[in-house]
Amino acid sequence: MRKRFQSTLSFSSSRRKLLKASSVLAAAPFLFPRYALAAAGSSEVNVQTFYRGDWIAAFKQAFSAADTVTVPADLVCDNINTAIFMPAGKTLHVLGGLKGNGKGRFVMQDGCQIVGEKGGRFHNITLDVRGSDCAIKGIDMSGFAPVTQIYIGGKQKRSMRNLVIDQITVHDANYGILRQGFHNRMENVKITNGHFNRLQGDAIEWNVAINDHDLLISDHVIENIDCTNGKINWGIGIGLAGSTYDNEYPEDQAVKNFVVANITGSNCRQLVHVENGKHFIIRNIKAHNINHTFSKKAGIDNATIAIYGCDNFIIDNISMKDSAGFLIGYGVIKGKYLSIPQNFKLNNIELDNTHMQYKSRGIQISSGNATSFVAITNVKMKRATLELHNKPQHLFLRNVDVMQYAYSGPALKLNFDLRNDVRGRFMAKDDTLLSLANVRAVNEKGRSSVDIDRVDHLHVNTSRLNFALPEGVK
């Protein structure tokens, strides 16, 4: 997938290429000594005490005077239209409101915290994370002026650790959280308990994050993600991407070592998206009304979970209703097929499109490579097709029950014969295994409904199938 930005922050044109921020956003700050304390020692001040007609000056003076700066509940600080650098170790405690025109931002350095409570809110202001041991908690964010509400990036080559983003609400905005990971490294990141609603861009995008390690994205509600502004590749719930596709799957080019879990999503075109990733888990997803009517001009596939060119992953415990299912496919750039998914397991998958008003994707999988496996277990789908293309070395299907209406095609499609297709180069050829057990594929009348073009695997094991394999199977 390629992502294009046009905004006052001047982002360039690729989801998987670095989305360059403007020189203002990328400017490296002067770093204070880590956890340096203000001269007044550990203390808390009200920013209003320092206000003399300029809130930006007031915040700068307040941070110099104390460790914690408070915006009280009855106060709104407006015209925050430039950068405010929080010295290391400082805390911004927000009970009231802060407003800007999209050019304002709080730059968080080592040990900084922004904590909201009792309605603490930001409007058209970006929080710019530039340090280790930072936390953003309990705040409400909105505004379409900035590209993103929380930006994690910068061009400084450094390692940053221990970022916590918890219990935030983002609504009526473009992007929620945007990470640009090409230049630096993030370790031990926890993004939890968020609510994202009425966004044009992604709720969370972790882009070109080839250096990052130990990322947890969990316990979020994502709804009403609909790109109507014509931006290409905007409008995904959670997206993660590495760099250039490579069928050897080198570690230094992939987004890796992450977990996406406990996500409830509705009313969007695509809920979870990973490209050029490895060593990851997606689990406990509940999806409703994921369909093509959202983000119509964004140029992205319609799927609850979309996986492109990935290796070594697990997708487990996914419940979908009235939704497009999975797309697990090739890594493609400009029409060139560069990689194919390999070494993965799908388990405990449910999709019920009985009452869906649109014809939609069920589960569509392309997989392969000389030494690879795919395991698909405990799948139940209604009014949907399970479709597999190409040939991994070892393919296992266990406890699969699919029903598709006859007018929409077969319930199970196995397309192993790509001898005359350019994508056939990804087929495994040696020591191939096809193992099918307790697989049932029927139409709405309960009759067998399959389309299998060719089975030439070296080893074939079957039991409890409601259909026959093609003649000549080895």
TrEMBL record:
Signal peptide: 1-38
Keywords: Signal
InterPro entries: Colanic_acid_synth_WcaM, Pectin_lyase_fold/virulence, TAT_signal
Protein name: Colanic acid biosynthesis protein WcaM
Keyword Signal annotated: yes
Keyword Signal in annotation: yes
Segments crossing the lipid bilayer: none
Source organism of this protein record: Buttiauxella warmboldiae
